Amino acid sequence: MIEVIILAVALSMDAFAVSIGLGAKKNTHGLALKAGIFFGIFQALMPFIGYLGGKGILGWIDTYAHWVAFGLLALIGAKMIYEGTREGIEEDIADITNKMMLVLAIATSIDAMAAGFSLTLLDADPYVACLTIGAITFAFSWVGVVIGRKSGTWLESKAEVFGGIVLILIGIKILLF
What we know:
- It is a single chain.
- This protein is mainly alpha-helical.
- The protein has one domain (2-176).
- It has helices spanning 2-25, 30-61, 65-84, 98-116, 126-151, 156-176.
- Helix 2 runs parallel beside helix 4 (98-116).
- The longest helix is centred in the N-terminal third of the chain and has 32 residues, at 30-61.
- The chain is globular, with a radius of gyration of 16 Å.
C-alpha cells in the first residue's frame, strides 16, 4: 500500500502545482474546495481507466509489462520535470469557471491514466488505489490553493519536478524488483 501512497503523491503534484497557480491568481474561499473536487475526481478516474486498459493488454505483453510500466512512468516523470521548468498555463487563466476547471482537471489527469497501467503490476486493490489517489489529490489540491493564496507561485514548479522524479523512481523500482 505504501507504493500506492507514493504513486498518489507523485501523481497529485501536477494538480498541486496548478492549484498553487490558481490560488495565487484568484483569492476565493470556494476555490480550494472546487479544485479539490475537480482534480480529485479525475485523478481517481483516470488511473482506473489505465488499469482496465492495462488488464486488457497484460496477457499480450506479460513478458514486457515491467518495461512498459517503467517506460510510461519515466516518460510521465520526464514530462513533469520538463513542465516544472517551464511556465504553466495558469498564467493565462483570466476567469476560473467550471468549464476551465474541467479542462484543467482532464489535462492534469491524463498522465494518471498512463500511470494506471502500473497498478496492474502492484499488489494493490485497484479500487482502493484509485480512491487513495483521488483523496490524496483532493487534499493536495485544496492545500495548493491555500498555499498559492498566501505565497504566490514560487512552489509551483518545484512540486512538478518533485512529482516527476518520484514517478521515475517508481518506474525504476518496478523494473528492478
